[in-house]
Each structure stands twice: as C-alpha cells, then as structure tokens.
Amino acid sequence: MAGKMKSACYHLPGLFEFYDFYKVFLPLWREHREWFYDWCHIASIYGAPGDCLWGGGRAAFGDADAADVISLMNDYGISPRLTFSNSLLRTEHLSDKKCNGLCSAFGKTNVASGVVVHSDLLAKYLIARFPALYLVSSTTKVLTDFSDFEKELKRPEFKYVVPDFRLNKSFDKLSQLHQAEKDKVEFLCNECCNMNCPDRKACYENVSQKNLGEIVASHKCRQPGSERGYRFSLAMKNPAFISLENIRETYLPLGFSNFKIEGRGLGSALLLEFILYYMTKPKHHLEVREEIYLDSMLDLF
Q: What's this model's pTM, rounded to 2 decimal places?
C-alpha cells in the first residue's frame, strides 16, 4: 500500500458537447470550492467535435467552437483531450485536414492537451507530428486480459492507459503494480455495460466505421435491458462500478489517482448527477443544482 494518499483526479466527458454546461459549472467549481471535496480535482475534460474522421468510442459529439473550448480550458487550467479513438484508421486518413487542425490548435494550449487513441498508426503519427500532445490509450482496445493491460502500461508513448472496466476490481494484480504504473492507470468508473457482453469491441468498431463515412447499420446491443439505455442506478449495481467510497477507501490508499467518468451522449442533466455524486459534498447538492438549473443561459437535457 502506498504511504501517502493521493488526490482523486477526475477526467470528465463532453469537451465540445457540454461546453455550455461547463461555462456555467466551472465558475461554481472555482468560486465555491468549499462545496466540493478538497481531495478531488478536475484533471481533464475529453471529447471531439462532430464529423471527426479520427473520432471513435461513443457516437457523441458537440458543435462548440474549438477556440472557445481552448479558451475555457486555459482559463481554468484544465487539460483538454481530443477523443480520437477510431480503431480502423488507414494511412490515407492521417491527412485529414480537420483533425490535423485540431491537433495543431490543441498543441498550443496553456495546459498540456492530450489525445485519446486506439490506433497505433495514429499514435505514431501524432508523436512525430504533434509532440506537445500527450497520449492516452483508449479503453476501446478492450484489453480484458490483465497481462495485455500490463504490456500496455509499459509502453512509454502513453501517459495514461484506460483499462477495460472488467479489470476494475482485480485488486490482487492491481496492487502489485509499481507506483509509476499505478500513476498511468485511469479507471472507467460508471460503465453500465454488462460484464459478460461479448460485443463491446464490435460496438466500438461500428462507431469507427460510421466516423469513416461507411454506410453500416447501427450496432444493436443484445444484452438484457439494453433497450432502456444508460441508467446511473443500474451502473451502480454493476460489479465493476467504482463508487465514491471505493475511490476514497480502496483506490486512493492503494496509490491510484485517475478516474474517468463516462457520459458523452448521455445529456448534461446526467453529467450533473455524476458531478454531484463523485465530487460534491452531500450538504451542498441542492445549492449546486439550484445554481445550474436556475441559470437562464443553460438548458439541461
């Protein structure tokens, strides 16, 4: 067990999609820091604008202007991350003007910017072309074997590695990692997907195909209850769910500090619930809700 307990560094969703939400929330985060746990921080916000060839993961984007997004992240000293986790990229895709332009712009931010990647082809390209950007190995690789995950952690090109959520509770093996490796692990906390789902990789690949402009049918999840969509209440019952108590009582004492909150495409109202649960002191939940709900500039959905 590590000697000194770390702070929790959260990686939040919707860099472009929830830009309007963050314009309202981040001032609260700064001005009323006493409403939130002092042991947690916002380390990054991740996402991608619409129609990004290199995009992957969940099919959720936003239309906020990149310059506005960068300005907001600079103002609050938060690392922005581009979610470029398309798993099916080919050499001809690397010249995409929009994605290269975004990487160029984000490489000049005040706080280091990152890129979440799946493709080794893209990773090598970004290292050569945009060395100012740090890389995050995407959970879309679906590395469910712990030995494969360990190999990924040892790759020097990645600053962080997001394991498949099914490895979240492998404490016997996680506890044996060296501290430098623990510092690179970024756990996906609130996944709702069935632990036994065999189609997770196919689901991600379907999104990648669509982002490449391929005409394919949408992936249909075959797991029981999937027709209801995401439910935070159900995610909490997932054996791999990482609760607030898990973070404070298990992960932080073990020396882990990075926690990713899923949420692109789920709406800003649910994002608020994630923030209340993971970051806000219970006695201040109502005050945060009131400040957000009563802001005339923001429509929660």
A: 0.92
